[in-house]
Write a structure and sequence with these properties.
Layout (H helix, E strand, L loop, with lengths): L27 E7 L11 E4 L10 E3 L4 H7 E5 L22 E13 L10 E5 L12 E2 L4 E2 L2 E2 L1 E9 L9 E6 L2
Parallel strand pairs: 1-3
Antiparallel strand pairs: 1-5, 2-3, 2-4, 4-5, 5-11, 6-7, 6-10, 8-9, 10-11
Length: 179
């Protein structure tokens, strides 16, 4: 005879990249759009304002490509959407090839990400803005600027911090707090 499980964790220990870590009352997810022609993106990546479609800069997003994108134009973190077909566009869940693709974007709250390096609680959050060696996921997270020849390839996200510890490539939580 199988005995059914009678107790459940309110907050699972690990999760998928880009999955919301909790849904407290103050969490805020906004609908943004990946414009046609912008690079496909994965869940759990920092997103910045895009001006690809004229007059729609307030709703269009893309991956960061410069330090100014992160410091002045951060829109939030892409959220995992279970209704999207993973693998259809490589590793990307969102692709705006022919029409604007809706992307849920966390502006305030906690989300699971896969950091590029080992992190600990309260470490600052940096987002990748330049490809460096095998680290080629723009918008991915780490806890330092990843300086190469005196040039940072990742930029500080001033409104975010790591709220759990973990090894590189394992799920950890990032908290972001944008106005």
């Amino acid at each position: 005879m199988n005995i059914p499980q009678t107790s459940y964790d309110a907050a699972p220990g690990k999760a998928l990249e880009g999955q919301l870590a909790d849904t407290y009352v103050g969490a805020f997810v906004a609908s943004k759009y990946l414009a046609p022609g912008d690079a496909p993106l994965r869940a759990g990546r920092l997103l910045v304002r895009s001006t690809t479609v004229s007059g729609q800069a307030d709703t269009n997003i893309r991956l960061p490509a410069a330090a100014a994108d992160v410091t002045s134009h951060t829109q939030g973190i892409s959220i995992y959407d279970a209704t999207k077909q993973p693998g259809r566009y490589g590793d990307a869940l969102y692709n705006g090839q022919t029409f604007p693709a809706p992307v849920p974007c966390l502006r305030r709250g906690r989300v699971w990400v896969l950091p590029e390096v080992d992190v600990v609680i309260d470490d600052p959050v940096y987002a990748r803005i330049t490809v460096h060696g095998g680290l080629n996921q723009l918008g991915a997270f780490r806890n330092d600027g990843d300086t190469v020849s005196s040039v940072d390839t990742a930029t500080l996200v001033p409104t975010a911090k790591f709220v759990t510890s973990g090894l590189a490539g394992t799920p950890v939580q990032v908290e972001i707090n944008l106005p």
